[in-house]
Amino acid sequence: MNHAPKQTITLIGLGALGKVIVFKANSRNLSIQAIVRHHTKMNCEYLLNDTDGVSHKLNVACNDFEMLSQSDLILLTVKAFSIIEILEQFDKILPCDVPIILINNGMGIKEQIEARLPHRKHQFYQVITTMAAYTDSLGTHFVSKGMSYYGKIFTSSIQSKSCMSFTELNKKERRHTENEALTMFESLFLENGEISLIHRVHEISYYQLEKLYINALINPLTVKYQCLNGGLLDHINELNLLIDEILLFHSALHSSNAISQNLSRDELYFKLMDVIQKTQYNQSSMLQDFLASRRLEIEEISGYILKKSALMCLDLPATQLLYEEVKKRILREPIKH
Ligand SMILES: NC(=O)C1=CN([C@@H]2O[C@H](COP(=O)(O)OP(=O)(O)OC[C@H]3O[C@@H](n4cnc5c(N)ncnc54)[C@H](OP(=O)(O)O)[C@@H]3O)[C@@H](O)[C@H]2O)C=CC1
Ligand SMILES: CC(C)(CO)C(=O)C(=O)O
To answer: Which segments constitute the Ketopantoate reductase C-terminal domain (predicted)?
Structure first.
């Protein structure tokens, strides 16, 4: 008989995706808590409208830092610009030998982990997902289950001796293996107990780049034209210029061996048109953030491409102009929170 204690998950960031993950964990009877910004909160109640239209009232325990230090799996569902600050804030209490799984759009996190959290490199996994959810005054709406891919961020990293957490200092033995934690994570994406909506991949960076390109082509343009994703079909000439620059960028990455796969114009064009068509009635996440006066992931999307391009001596004038137009709009309507 197996007397091992139940595995536990700590999720940091109870926004739209975080609420969906908690819902999934609850319906699979997994033990999950959330860390939210206000650390005095002991639980959070919210309404989740599932993809089938059924509403569920949920209540999740929050901010148990002892549980955080002993969790078998850490999930971060925060915006890209919040990730490093949160990891640094909890560095002393995060366990050193469990997977830390990041679910976000945008890029640049790998470089920041390398610089600021090198002792944790062995722990990081990245999820790239087409799952969709948003929150409004009626609750959180789980719009689409999509498909997710995940993989190690640093493929050849081993545990660093300098990672000494609260758990290690108390010489508490970890009760579950990394594989068990990942199996638990994957079970969150099982449909009817059998069809998996997540796949583990060897090279997650290619999936990250593909999603980055889709986000860079759709999100800032929807802010510029204040339109739904489908409205971008009225700006096809501008989209074509941006696609050409993205291909130039990808080709430079490929030539410098930063990425092994190449990307053809047809591939990128059809992928983009497919996403625009499937999400034609959606507001992009960047437009939603803009309309709610929240900080945008513009630096982690277009800004990332422009910074990397500059390092490779590439000029991307249409991408640069779009980036500046979005930044100007933010200045006109500043972020409130
Ligand atoms: N929603 C979607 O459909 C999809 C989202 N993504 C990506 O996933 C990531 C998360 O997205 P989403 O869930 O929509 O984002 P949200 O903005 O809805 O959620 C982020 C949450 O993180 C919280 N947070 C920020 N800083 C802290 C902190 N220091 N401590 C605790 N909590 C904190 C925020 O709290 P507060 O509100 O107080 O700031 C908010 O609740 C983003 O990168 C997004 O681009 C990817 C695919 C689909
Ligand atoms: C795919 C897309 C563009 C869908 O809206 C998205 O990921 C986003 O809005 O951030």
So the answer is: 204-328
DSSP alpha helix (H) spans, the chain: 16-27, 65-69, 83-89, 109-116, 166-169, 178-187, 204-225, 236-255, 265-278, 285-291, 304-311, 317-332
Q: What is the ipTM of this complex?
A: 0.98
Q: What is the pLDDT of residue 169?
A: 46
Cβ of 284 less than 6 Å from ligand 1: no
CB 298 near ligand 1, within 6 Å: no
Task: Tell me the CA–centroid distance for residue 158 and ligand 2, in Å.
Answer: 34
Report CA-CA distances (Å) from 264 to 119, 211, 254, 267, 295: 37, 15, 12, 5, 33
DSSP bridge partners of 73: 9
- pLDDT, tens only, 303-337: 999 999 999 999 999 999 999 999 999 988 766 65
Task: Please tell me the distance from the alpha carbon of residue 272 to that of residue 269, in angstroms, as a whole number.
Answer: 5
Render the burial of 21-56: b for 16+ CB within 10 Å, e for the rest: bbbbbbeeebbbbbbbeeeeeeebebebbeeeeeee
- Please report the domains of the chain, with CATH numbers, ordered by start residue: 8-200 (3.40.50.720), 204-332 (1.10.1040.10)
Helix axis angle for 236-255 and 304-311, nearest 10°, is 50
Residue count of the chain: 337
Distance in angstroms (rounded) separating the CA atoms of residues 66 and 289: 33
Nearest to 19 by CA among 152, 131, 182: 131
Task: Give the number of the ligand closest to the Cα of residue 300.
Answer: 1
Q: Give the Cβ contact number of residue 183 at 10 Å.
A: 12
Model's pTM, two decimal places? 0.94
Q: In the sheet that 148-152 helps form, which strands lie side by side, from edge to edge?
A: 31-35, 8-12, 73-76, 100-103, 124-129, 148-152, 198-200
DSSP code at position 122: G
CB 96 within 8 A of CB 120: yes
Max CA separation in the chain (angstroms)? 65
Euclidean distance between CA atoms 283 and 300, whole angstroms: 19
Count Cα neighbours of 292 within 13 Å in the Cβ-side half-sphere.
Answer: 15
